[in-house]
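Example (one chain per record):
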Amino acid sequence: MENGWGILAAIDHEMTIWQFLSRNWAMMSIVVTFIATIAICCLVLGRYIRIMLNILKDTPPPLAMGPLDFQRIEGPVVEFRSFDGISLRGMFLYSDRSKPRKGMIVFCHEFASDMYSCARYCRALLESGYDLFTFDFRGHGGSSCDEGYQPRQWVSDRDVNDAMGAIAFVEDHLESQKLPVEIGLFGISRGAGAAILASMRNPAVKAIVTDGLFSTDRTMEDLMRKWASIFAKVRFVYENHPPAFWRFLRWLLFIFVHRKFKCRYPSVRKGLRRMTPKPIFMIHGERDSYIPVEQAFFLLKNAPEPKSLWVVAGAKHNQGVIVSPHEYSGKTLGFFDHYLSGIVAKVDSRACGDTREEKTG
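Predicted structure:
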């Protein structure tokens, strides 16, 4: 008898469910459609995220190894600490003491290079009277690296800590020598981004030169759009995502990046917007296929005044110094003479890069 009552109750319950569904079919169809839409969006976003994580992890850098088209310059090697305590290696290069000393410049090398590459970009500065401090980022050259962290071509919070440590070390050195605590920064590609982010509100940094500067967030958006056609079969769909979609996807991507790579990739674009005004001279190759020249103009708009940009005709990523070596030396030297040493009378406006969209070759 009990089994019979149970069967009747189950039948009655099933009829009640069907009655509810038949009476509320419109509401249920909306709920089902909403759930299906959410599920499809999650699947699409998940696929985007997986592919972009692989791009972040595996995209080959523009230089597979440090540039070798220069003669090394040796100087006293020192050990110092990053802002998070990692041991780093650096080197002081001193100018000819027969000439008046002009100032101190900290050089931040590109990914897969080391501190000796400063000779490629800064030889004219050294010969003119500037002292240089160059160093190896963690995981490069003779610097150590924290366990579980792998340096990549994207500017991470660890790279910013390294640059901040180098700047602080040089500040202490200048104070100990009773010299003015005034520093110029010269950064290449990833090193340029680290230099910008490390010096946003540091009054000791008086002038910054960058070559091949990029912002990881903007670069990721460009790569997302470029590779969307691989996994979006319907062309109309991936060509008509609103800008908010790419911003949301970038935000979501960096949440997963932080969990997977155990580091953060701060925005150089935001860093420029928040920077205490200081002179910035940007250099970018016109034929840069890694970081399109459009990003250089985009970052220039975000930078504080005074600012300038030199687009080197015919140059690829970080190759302006090879394509136009004399102009490269003249413009970088002129910029630091103007804004770091205060030598104004001997420097013309073109040497300082006063034309923001100047193209020369």
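Caption: The chain is about 50% helix and 15% strand.
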